[in-house]
Amino acid sequence: MDARDTIPILIETSAATDGCFQNTRPLLHEIAHALRRLQLEGVATTLDLSAIPFGPGDERQLIDFLGKGEVSAKLEAMGESLIWESRYAGVWIVEHRSTSSERLAFQLEITKLPAILASQPEDIAESLLMLREALESPQADGTLV
């Protein structure tokens, strides 16, 4: 028997943590700093929530604290993406899921508009061509549509 085996080790847990790693408060401070950068410098920030070591309850605590604002969107492209602005303008929750509903990404975007919702230059160019073609080729009955 090694002398180290006789050293008593006491592991304490706090009932106040409810299994949380207590990462919510530091993350909220980081969000506040990012929101300030957005306000002053126009710099957007993305926080990968999948990379943060959430304990049981931490994620729920964060989402409950942030709440839901007035704007949300649902995208269907190679799986479902849910995007909603929190009760704090400029703080967006973005969740991507596979076609089998497995979470692929979970992030906070501190920005005016999440990148996934912005029209891409290639899509705009294609839309312009389609609109011009439609305007140059009226229907047989003379209507545009």
Overview of this structure, please?
With 145 residues, the chain is α+β, with helices and mostly antiparallel strands. It has a domain at 15-114: Ribosomal Protein S8, Chain: A, domain 1, CATH 3.30.1370.140. It has three helices and five strands, in the order H-E-H-E-E-E-E-H. Strands 1-5-4-3-2 form a five-stranded antiparallel β-sheet. A hairpin with a 5-residue loop joins strand 3 (80-85) and strand 4. The radius of gyration is 24 Å and the shape is elongated. It starts with 23 loop residues before the first helix and ends in a 9-residue tail after the last helix. The model has no long low-confidence stretch (mean pLDDT 86).
Strand content: 15-25%
Can you write the helix and strand succession as a string?
A: HEHEEEEH
Main β sheet profile: 5 strands, antiparallel
Rounded mean pLDDT is 86
- Superfamily (CATH H level) name of one domain: HupH hydrogenase expression protein, C-terminal domain
Taking strands numbered 1, 2, ... along the chain, how are they ordered across the largest sheet?
Answer: 1-5-4-3-2
What is the C-alpha radius of gyration, as a whole number of Å? 24 Å
Helicity, as a percent range: 25-40%
- Which residues sit in consecutive blocks of at least 5 with pLDDT less than 50? none
Shape: elongated
| CATH topology descriptor of one domain | Ribosomal Protein S8, Chain: A, domain 1
Please report the distance between the alpha carbons of the first and last residues: 88 Å
- Report the total helices: 3
Class of secondary structure makeup: alpha+beta
CATH level-1 class of one domain:
Alpha Beta
Count of DSSP strands: 5
CATH architecture level-2 label of one domain: 2-Layer Sandwich
